[in-house]
Amino acid sequence: MATTNGYLGVTPPIATTESSDREKEVTVTLMEELRRQGTFESEEEAKTREIVLGRIAALVQKFVRTVAISRGMSESAATAAGGKIFTFGSYRLGVHGPGSDIDTLCVVPKHVSREDFFDVFEAMVKEADGVTEASGVPDAYVPIIKVKISGIPIDLVMARLALSAIPETLSLQDDNLLRNLDERCVRSLNGSRVTDEILRLVPNVAVFRDSLRCIKLWAQRRAIYSNVNGFLGGVAWAMLVARICQLYPNAIAGAIVSRFFIIMYQWSWPQPVLLKQIEDGPLPVRVWNPKLYPADRAHRMPIITPAYPSMCATHNVTSSTQMIMTEEFKKGSEIVDRVIVGTASWSELFAKHDFFHKYRYYLQVIASTGSAELQIKWSGTVESRLRQLVMKLEYVDTLALAHPFIKGFEQISYCLTDEEVRAVAQGEISDAVAKRKKEDTEGKEGASAVYSTTFYIGLAIEPKQPGAVGPRKLDISYPTTEFSKLVKMWEKFDDSTMGIVVRHIKSTALPDYVFDEGERQPRSALKRPKNGKGADKNNNTSPDVPNKKRRLVQQPIVTVFPNAMPGMLHRSSNSVSESLSSMPSSTQPLKMTQNGSATVEPSASSSLYPASVKDPAQLRSPQLPFGENVAVATGAGSS
């Protein structure tokens, strides 16, 4: 696809030359490595996906017909009402891997409501052959039904168009289809519209797919693939790769990946990444515009969707997650540079993250309930608000950075007593409970199951100022109590069935389940030499953190426990919130004071996140291989 200017994108290409022989060689080895890493699905799984999608398409038409008849329409009119599905996300982009889900949009006519989707269609899906899981989340930002059919996970969203029938030939490219739709339908439609527009805006779809498959695997392995936790989601990563493809329209995957890391490390944020100029449309809806909207000006790494109405796909990025991604871009560029010159292999790029080895202190956020179905909703609610906790932590004076991990760890604990239930809800799982199985509790009075999801945030401590002596205070009482209040504001929160705990622990107290088999954090933290020598000099670099605001009110509560759980004894309101000083010593990395703050003992591993920040005094940026104009690449010519 070419624009009126003869090129794709908002600026001319940086280079239109073919890739070098060496870049062609490393592209071959890249694709070999991606196959070794298991990023491609088998032919059998691909065929199963096609069969499952065909069944979903037929089920949607049956659903539309059923609802139409219930509304009093004739048999012929109900059949003619149609209904159609569109895939989007990684499957539509052609970069999905084994076991990945299929994002699927169900487009229905105007007589079908969202309530029908969750009442009628969800029930039909649950009764279909081969369905092993089906769960609707009608209150989500984009309402969704998650199902698994014949082993294939599918995320179903719905859009109701202002049409009496949905023809088989329907295309979603027409902006006028968005007329008279509610915001949720617009968001659902745009998932498909954005994916299709990305594919239309890249010069070579095959090169784009190979490059994106590489970047996607890298981001997942480095634990920076998560929109909800403040990193980038699949669409945002796709748009970044698409932009590099526009800048190098004749390059192959190895060259695209190499330039991706160099350019993204040096990108002039908050200069937006655009695949085309932002367009006006027929609707009175908000389009991303930092000149008009203060909230848009606050976006740290704006990556703008190309389909109308253009939105920022990265509004969740925080100061901490931006620093983490920037450092990963730099590391990636260094590894790929060594791959190009032949001193490293692609496997080094896909090395697993070291999140649980990186910090001395961590926050545990534990969401718990007494039922599997309720836990899905409660843990999802807590996870969706974790970013707010991270942003509040960023303003704590002694913290350099708050690093959220991209997923929670789920557990089911079978308890025999109220005391065990309380302990599990607080993150204390004894060996006896950990080894206990469901059948061990069957028929026993007072037995109950506790479903818990634990999220982690790494805490990077600011280095001590020269000449400072003694321990320092780390007061996180304000952000943790504010976060607890925030999650409890959920309209469906019930303190008799839901628990939320926030507490900090040492790296030596991390549970075994966060590590792979054979991997374990050393049990004793390294001590910093008294003369200050011997530490990694990179660890002494001070991250560029936001200005810290001193809180007017600091509350003593750091850990918040649930009032009750199924089978748990109700406690008085005075015992609901407890100081960390009451926790076992293994979870007490910080010395608590009476006002709820903590003291930090000097230690080499308690220093800050070991990131090389963009300090002009020590910055040496990676360079593009042929002296290309980096200013163009970093968006200086974009608007």
UniProtKB/TrEMBL annotation:
<feature type="binding site">
    <location>
        <position position="101"/>
    </location>
    <ligand>
        <name>Mg(2+) 1</name>
    </ligand>
</feature>
<feature type="binding site">
    <location>
        <position position="155"/>
    </location>
    <ligand>
        <name>Mg(2+) 2</name>
    </ligand>
</feature>
<keyword id="KW-0547">Nucleotide-binding</keyword>
<feature type="domain" description="Poly(A) polymerase central">
    <location>
        <begin position="207"/>
        <end position="352"/>
    </location>
</feature>
<keyword id="KW-0539">Nucleus</keyword>
<dbReference type="GO" id="GO:0031123">
    <property type="term" value="P:RNA 3'-end processing"/>
</dbReference>
<feature type="region of interest" description="Disordered">
    <location>
        <begin position="565"/>
        <end position="639"/>
    </location>
</feature>
<feature type="binding site">
    <location>
        <begin position="234"/>
        <end position="235"/>
    </location>
    <ligand>
        <name>ATP</name>
    </ligand>
</feature>
<keyword id="KW-0808">Transferase</keyword>
<feature type="binding site">
    <location>
        <begin position="88"/>
        <end position="90"/>
    </location>
    <ligand>
        <name>ATP</name>
    </ligand>
</feature>
<comment type="function">
    <text>Polymerase that creates the 3'-poly(A) tail of mRNA's.</text>
</comment>
<feature type="binding site">
    <location>
        <begin position="101"/>
        <end position="103"/>
    </location>
    <ligand>
        <name>ATP</name>
    </ligand>
</feature>
<keyword id="KW-0067">ATP-binding</keyword>
<dbReference type="GO" id="GO:0005524">
    <property type="term" value="F:ATP binding"/>
</dbReference>
<dbReference type="InterPro" id="IPR048840">
    <property type="entry name" value="PolA_pol_NTPase"/>
</dbReference>
<dbReference type="GO" id="GO:0006397">
    <property type="term" value="P:mRNA processing"/>
</dbReference>
<feature type="binding site">
    <location>
        <position position="216"/>
    </location>
    <ligand>
        <name>ATP</name>
    </ligand>
</feature>
<dbReference type="GO" id="GO:1990817">
    <property type="term" value="F:poly(A) RNA polymerase activity"/>
</dbReference>
<feature type="binding site">
    <location>
        <position position="103"/>
    </location>
    <ligand>
        <name>Mg(2+) 2</name>
    </ligand>
</feature>
<feature type="binding site">
    <location>
        <position position="103"/>
    </location>
    <ligand>
        <name>Mg(2+) 1</name>
    </ligand>
</feature>
<dbReference type="InterPro" id="IPR011068">
    <property type="entry name" value="NuclTrfase_I-like_C"/>
</dbReference>
<dbReference type="InterPro" id="IPR007010">
    <property type="entry name" value="PolA_pol_RNA-bd_dom"/>
</dbReference>
<dbReference type="InterPro" id="IPR014492">
    <property type="entry name" value="PolyA_polymerase"/>
</dbReference>
<dbReference type="GO" id="GO:0005634">
    <property type="term" value="C:nucleus"/>
</dbReference>
<keyword id="KW-0694">RNA-binding</keyword>
<feature type="binding site">
    <location>
        <position position="101"/>
    </location>
    <ligand>
        <name>Mg(2+) 2</name>
    </ligand>
</feature>
<protein>
    <recommendedName>
        <fullName>Poly(A) polymerase</fullName>
        <ecNumber>2.7.7.19</ecNumber>
    </recommendedName>
</protein>
<dbReference type="InterPro" id="IPR007012">
    <property type="entry name" value="PolA_pol_cen_dom"/>
</dbReference>
<keyword id="KW-0507">mRNA processing</keyword>
<dbReference type="InterPro" id="IPR043519">
    <property type="entry name" value="NT_sf"/>
</dbReference>
<feature type="domain" description="Poly(A) polymerase nucleotidyltransferase">
    <location>
        <begin position="9"/>
        <end position="202"/>
    </location>
</feature>
<dbReference type="GO" id="GO:0046872">
    <property type="term" value="F:metal ion binding"/>
</dbReference>
<comment type="similarity">
    <text>Belongs to the poly(A) polymerase family.</text>
</comment>
<keyword id="KW-0460">Magnesium</keyword>
<feature type="domain" description="Poly(A) polymerase RNA-binding">
    <location>
        <begin position="354"/>
        <end position="523"/>
    </location>
</feature>
<feature type="compositionally biased region" description="Low complexity">
    <location>
        <begin position="572"/>
        <end position="586"/>
    </location>
</feature>
<feature type="binding site">
    <location>
        <position position="155"/>
    </location>
    <ligand>
        <name>ATP</name>
    </ligand>
</feature>
<dbReference type="Pfam" id="PF20750">
    <property type="entry name" value="PAP_NTPase"/>
</dbReference>
<feature type="region of interest" description="Disordered">
    <location>
        <begin position="516"/>
        <end position="553"/>
    </location>
</feature>
<keyword id="KW-0479">Metal-binding</keyword>
<keyword id="KW-0464">Manganese</keyword>
<dbReference type="Pfam" id="PF04928">
    <property type="entry name" value="PAP_central"/>
</dbReference>
